[in-house]
Amino acid sequence: MALHLSHAVSDGLRRTLTRTGGTLLAGFLLIQFATQAAVNTAVLGYLPSDVAGQFSANVGITLPVSGPVALALFCALLPLSAAFFAVVARALVQPFEELSALPADATRRLGRTTVRLLVGGIVVTVLIFLGTAFLVVPGLFFAVSFLFFVFTIAVEERGLVDGLKRSWALARGSRLKLFGIVVLAGVFGGFIGVIAPLFDLAGAPVAGDAVTIAASAVFFTPYYAIIASAYLQLRDDPTGHDSPEPVDASGTPRL
Questions:
Q1: 168 near 153, Cβ under 8 Å?
Q2: What is the CA radius of gyration of the chain?
Q3: Cβ(71)–Cβ(42) under 8 Å?
Q4: Can you tell me the distance from the alpha carbon of 23 to that of 254, in angstroms, rounded to the nearest whole number?
Q5: Residues 222-232: pLDDT tens digits?
Q6: How many domains does one find in the chain?
Q7: pTM value?
Q8: Taking every annotated instance into account, which residue ranges of this chain make up the domain DUF7847 (predicted)?
Q9: Is residue 107 part of a domain?
């Protein structure tokens, strides 16, 4: 199937700079803030009191709750995050002219979709981890092949196995171009991995968490919009052959 990566990037950025893009950015910020704060608080809460006292100065954003409560909050955030990504996928594939608001059916069958995304996320993460641990290349291959699984499950409402197969099929023939999208996420991860410790060394872990959360939200909103645009191109290409002009994904009708 044909993929015009430059068009996916430009169309994805256009989708980000809409009211829907702004709403999703706010959602990313809230979920990442809550997750980071819950993790930090849970870690402190389960450390011995003397160790926690020494370690607290190096911990970033925390919540005024106990460790067990923070752990429960983190567990609750896992399905909430999966549900949010389902909404993200459904929102970003709307026709461009309808991106002034979230789609009315963004939460349709959300419970079932959330479970599938949770399980699928675990499966994909394990495959990527194992592939990377052995020879690196298999991990990258899996990351590229399952790049669209959130969209095939949330937008097309496929089952777990069928959704993974569908993502694999969509990526076929375009993996080299999609590899660039995966590498972009890896580069960003490396950037965050370098920046965050600098704030810790400067004695400003809270600022480090804040910068990391903000940077992640600003990055991942257009990142998923670009993936959404690439998904629309590949989903709606009936021929499987390169076309002379990019497919206008912004005008794609809803499923």
A1: no
A2: 19
A3: yes
A4: 20
A5: 999 999 999 99
A6: 1
A7: 0.87
A8: 3-234
A9: yes
